Amino acid sequence: MATSPNIAKKNSVFIASSLDGFIADQNGSIDWLHSFPNPDNIDMGYAEFMAQIDAIVMGRTTFETVCNFDMEWPYRQTVFVLSNTLQQIPSTHRNKAQLVRGSVKEILAQIHQQNYHRLYIDGGKTIQHFLREDAIDEMIITTIPILLGDGYRLFGELPHPLSFRCAESKIFLEGIVQNRFCKMKK
Questions:
Q1: pTM of this prediction?
Q2: What is the largest CA-CA distance in the chain?
Q3: Whole-angstrom Cα distance, residue 39 to residue 87?
Q4: Which runs of E-coded beta strand occur in the chain?
Q5: The CATH number of the domain covering residues in 10-21+42-183
Q6: Are 179 and 51 in contact (CB under 8 A)?
Q7: In 3-state terms, what secondary structure has residue 142?
Q8: CB 77 within 8 A of CB 53
Q9: What is the mean pLDDT of each run of 10 residues along the chain (186 residues)?
Q10: In the chain, where the domains are located
């Protein structure tokens, strides 16, 4: 469901991280996300967040990970997959995802041209790429109190510092901390 063209554009991140800043362990596994007991399956605001999203932008690795989940396709929104190596979306997912290529600016222009403006940016390398181009407006980071010691980092090198302010903090399940950071206006 796309928004009208006069809706403000917004690129948001909603992701979980270990206490030491990893989004996957050294083997690329995210099984550790379930290491903290959640007997009532609290979604920690994910459904509310997704209700405000027009489309999802993710990298090939994240796309392939989601495709391999033992469940139905989890998204109602259009998914745009960034990849320089994937030649086409697998036939099983062609009606669920579109392949996009180019710079962040070119990719956003392609997506906005299709009238999608409130975007969920997902996947470590994709988030890092968008941050390097200063193209993230909001980050909701849920910190799971586990130290992985090694793995895939959420953040990488930047050409210059980016300033965000903490707009909101929540605690779930007496130990999981979720912070919402908004980009500071220049």
A1: 0.92
A2: 45
A3: 41
A4: 10-18, 22-24, 55-59, 78-82, 97-100, 118-122, 138-144, 152-153, 164-172, 176-183
A5: 3.40.430.10
A6: no
A7: strand
A8: yes
A9: 66 98 95 92 96 96 90 94 92 92 96 97 97 98 97 96 98 96 90
A10: 10-21+42-183
